[in-house]
Specification:
By secondary structure, the chain is of the alpha/beta class. It has 10 helices and 10 strands. The protein is globular. The protein starts with 6 loop residues before the first strand and ends with a helix.
Length: 257
Amino acid sequence: MGGQDDFIIQVRGLNNSFGGHVVHENLSLDVKRGEIIGIVGGSGTGKSVLLRSIVGLQQPQSGDLTVFGQRLKDLSELERQAVEQRWGILFQDGALFSALSVAENVQVAFREHLSMKPSLMDELTGLKIRMVGLDEGACSKYPSELSGGMRKRAGLARALALDPEIVFLDEPTAGLDPIGAHGFDMLIKDLQRALGLTVFMVTHDLDTLSTVCDRIAVLADNRVVLVGTMDDMLQSNHPWVREYFHGPRARAARSIR
């Protein structure tokens, strides 16, 4: 049987509210080491707020966030920085620095956290860019010269720069056509297997949930109401879960598969 060490992220009693509007109330969630977990929920349920709370971009009203066995609010600034170097984040549309080339975007983390020769930095940058399925010709391009799918892949290369153990993805296939979305899904799956990553993915894409995720966590009623496999989702009687996973779009996704 697994123990506490199997959980790389633990959220306990998380509370978030904005202007009196409660988003999370006593939310708890465990993320297993090495899994791809999809976070799903209706509009306004706080999927991205949960991600931002874990990585420190949103200060919750209360609750405990533990990553790598360390309670984040107990850490000093230096200890927190050391933890943050062990995860990477891909925001929607890549969130690249527009004034920097793809290579320079990837190298931001190298320059901030590591001391290395320019030749080694260039070599590692090329490796990260090839790893996400871009050719080295993309290195010199600027974000405005890339397609949406290429920007996401470049953003993923930057997220992988420091060889993280966890990758946080916020709606990674949003805005992509079905072929591009499927290709990105397969890239995530292949990288997770090859690198032993834990992937925390906010998504509404039913195909992604079905083909990539090991488990799914559903946000509703201000908390996580269900965590499990796709089969667990399909068997649930929770009204939102049933509507989402048995609705017209879900049936269409299953028929395509």
